[in-house]
Design goal:
This is VOC domain-containing protein. There is one protein chain. By secondary structure, the chain is an alpha/beta fold. It has 2 helices and 8 strands.
Length: 121
């Protein structure tokens, strides 16, 4: 039996808007796109990143407090220059999170509020 992860899917109020952010951030191309679903292709052939429109989407709070909608997952993105990658992320619509838990990692929020981490080894 073969099991292979093909994509991670992020919900958002508008799949096209969120996919556009990650398209610009990562430089990936769309493999499939319609009004409510977009799949971005990983250039190295690895797992894709997909986005679906969810009309009842609730923006997560990070870090979540009592009663806040928590993040359900986050993306880790390896970079070679943390400052340059952070500036690139902000230029394309990310927001630097107020809370930063460790050195060598910067937490950002995408336009739908999903946290993602930029990190160096």
């Amino acid at each position: 039996m073969k099991l292979q992860l093909s994509a991670t899917v992020l919900d958002s109020p508008d799949a096209r808007v969120l996919a556009g952010f990650y398209r610009r951030l990562l430089g990936w191309e769309a493999k499939f796109e319609d009004d409510d679903w977009v799949m971005l292709r990983a250039p190295d052939g690895g797992a894709s990143l997909s986005f679906q429109t969810e009309p009842r989407y609730v923006r997560p709070v990070w870090p979540a407090g009592e009663g806040d909608p928590p993040m359900m997952m986050h993306l880790d993105i390896h970079v070679d220059d943390l400052a340059a990658a952070g500036a690139h992320a902000v230029e394309h619509g990310a927001e630097l999170a107020a809370f930063q838990p460790q050195e060598g990692v910067r937490v950002y929020l995408d336009p739908a509020g999903h946290p993602f981490c930029l990190f160096v080894d």
